[in-house]
């Protein structure tokens, strides 16, 4: 029988020393007699307001660029670290001229060589809606400012949705979502691009799966993949976990719903028809061809190797694909051979982090993909902040490097050697957090989420499910393990390490 205490939210200021120390700024750790979730100030509402507040601070950080940096002087937006793609693409992709993404060809004089919009369909729709809401009239500069402001408002709504979804994914640990709401890299990168839209859909999918709504989770994964490619990677961890738990029917329903929702969104834009039949529209295919053809770019391990060796690494696509396949196989083996079935959030974080580590480009806003997953996978403030410090270093490093390369003979900014150190900081910080997640999987007694006896609170139909398909060696180890050890290691709700 569950006690009232079992239903109370976990207090991070009690179990996390860094959270306890940080709480001194607002009066110290929450006492045991505090009424958690009482009245209007529930954890979910508080977290959503904190996330919106930090998003607003990120908008203030972009103020130098809003006033003049995006329009006067190529390096000002870099020296103030306030660059954003949004105002530049308003003109550069023809939104100021009323061009329809994927259907209308972009003039070369405007796009700088990009003939169609190079974003997935739902992100293109997001951009188009923002363009329709942008007031007309005035100078181009004024309309670009308004376009950024409209997008910022829409992305703020996405921020609130992410905060709510992350807070509700684990019923007893809503405060873990503060890791997302207070992440420094989130505030700095939120309005660089449109990634928060895909992150919001992905967070919704995670929350739906945690409630056992497999079809809804699949629909949201499909929609998220129609806004950005990376959410489709979540189907891999779901397959392996459902295989181990004997819940393949749940996976099949989610995968089918994901494919159906992706097709519903993409087919109207994907196909065109003429006298000879149906054809793939080149505007729709631009995102996929551009991703395949683009050379190695900023932030990637491949750029670091290329700059250090002088080798252009023209086969980076092959190397990245091979490493991605090998890495996914390794994650799959880990999931099947771990002493206890990993949590969904842990594997989701690992597979997205792997994609980022081996990709040909690492734009600063890609960190947004990982922040909510990291909050669910390993809610430990010390390690999370170490990783965030590395990401902030990279955020500053890329803009100062671009200032250096764009300032001519003045060389104001960070030289290539300094930028390479920033890339290394990003890579090592991400690998550090991945290593800790892997350790938690292999030694589940170290997993802070499972200390109260929980299995997989974000796992939905997987939560509490017995292992059906487990490699023989793992099964034999379990069979010979003393019952007392098993109770301590796997947790029964009575353990208090």
UniProtKB/TrEMBL annotation:
Localization in the cell: Cell membrane
Q: How does it sit in the membrane?
A: Multi-pass membrane protein
Keyword Thylakoid in the entry? The reply is no
Instruction: Please tell me the species this chain comes from.
Output: Streptomyces luteosporeus
Query: Can you tell me where the transmembrane regions are?
Result: 40-60, 146-167, 179-209, 215-243, 250-271, 318-337, 344-364, 384-406
Keywords assigned: Cell membrane, Membrane, Transferase, Transmembrane, Transmembrane helix
- Primary place of residence? membrane
Keyword Transmembrane helix appears in the UniProt entry: yes
Family stated for the protein in its record: Belongs to the glycosyltransferase 87 family.
Annotated region (Disordered), positions in chain: 476-497
This chain's protein is named Glycosyltransferase 87 family protein
Source species, domain of life: Bacteria
Any matching Pfam family: GT87
């Amino acid at each position: 029988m569950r006690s009232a205490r079992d239903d109370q939210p976990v207090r991070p200021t009690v179990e996390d020393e860094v959270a306890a120390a940080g709480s001194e700024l607002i009066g110290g750790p929450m006492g045991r007699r505090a009424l958690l979730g009482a009245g209007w100030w529930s954890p979910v509402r508080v977290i959503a307001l904190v996330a919106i507040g930090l998003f607003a601070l990120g908008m203030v950080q972009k103020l130098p660029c809003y006033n003049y940096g995006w329009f006067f002087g190529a390096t000002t937006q870099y020296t103030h670290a306030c660059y954003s793609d949004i105002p530049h693409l308003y003109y550069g992709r023809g939104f100021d001229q009323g061009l329809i993404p994927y259907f209308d060809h972009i003039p070369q004089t405007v796009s700088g060589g990009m003939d169609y919009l190079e974003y997935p369909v739902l992100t293109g729709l997001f951009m188009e809606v923002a363009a329709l809401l942008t007031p007309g009239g005035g100078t181009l500069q004024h309309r670009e400012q308004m376009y950024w402001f409209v997008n910022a408002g829409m992305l703020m709504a996405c921020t609130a949705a992410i905060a709510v979804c992350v807070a509700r994914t684990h019923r007893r640990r809503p405060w873990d979502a503060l890791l997302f709401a207070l992440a420094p890299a989130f505030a700095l990168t939120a309005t660089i691009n449109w990634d928060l839209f895909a992150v919001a859909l992905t967070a919704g999918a995670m929350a739906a799966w945690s409630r056992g709504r497999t079809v809804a989770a699949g629909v949201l994964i499909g929609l998220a993949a129609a806004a950005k490619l990376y959410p489709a990677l979540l189907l891999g961890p779901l397959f392996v976990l459902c295989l181990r738990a004997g819940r393949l029917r749940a996976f099949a329903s989610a995968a089918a719903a994901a494919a159906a929702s992706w097709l519903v969104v993409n087919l109207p834009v994907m196909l065109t028809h003429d006298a000879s039949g149906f054809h793939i529209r080149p505007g729709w295919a631009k995102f996929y061809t551009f991703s395949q053809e683009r050379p190695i770019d900023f932030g990637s391990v491949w750029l670091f190797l290329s700059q250090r060796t002088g080798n252009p690494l023209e086969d980076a696509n092959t190397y990245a694909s091979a490493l991605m396949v090998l890495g996914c196989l390794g994650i799959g083996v880990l999931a099947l051979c771990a002493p206890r079935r990993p949590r969904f959030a842990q594997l989701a974080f690992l597979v997205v982090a792997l994609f980022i580590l081996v990709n040909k480009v690492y734009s600063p806003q890609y960190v947004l993909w990982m922040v909510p997953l990291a909050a669910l996978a390993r809610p430990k403030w010390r390690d999370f902040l170490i990783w965030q410090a590395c990401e902030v270093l990279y955020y500053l490093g890329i803009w100062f490097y671009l200032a250096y390369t764009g300032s001519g003979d003045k060389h104001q900014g960070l030289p290539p050697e300094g930028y390479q150190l920033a890339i290394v900081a990003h890579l090592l910080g991400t690998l550090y957090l991945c290593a800790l997640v892997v350790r938690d999987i292999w030694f589940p007694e170290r997993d802070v989420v499972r200390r109260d006896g929980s299995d997989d609170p974000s796992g939905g139909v997987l939560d509490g499910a017995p292992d059906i398909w487990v490699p023989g060696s793992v099964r034999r180890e379990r069979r010979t393990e003393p019952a007392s050890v098993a109770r301590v290691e796997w947790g029964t709700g009575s353990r208090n390490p």
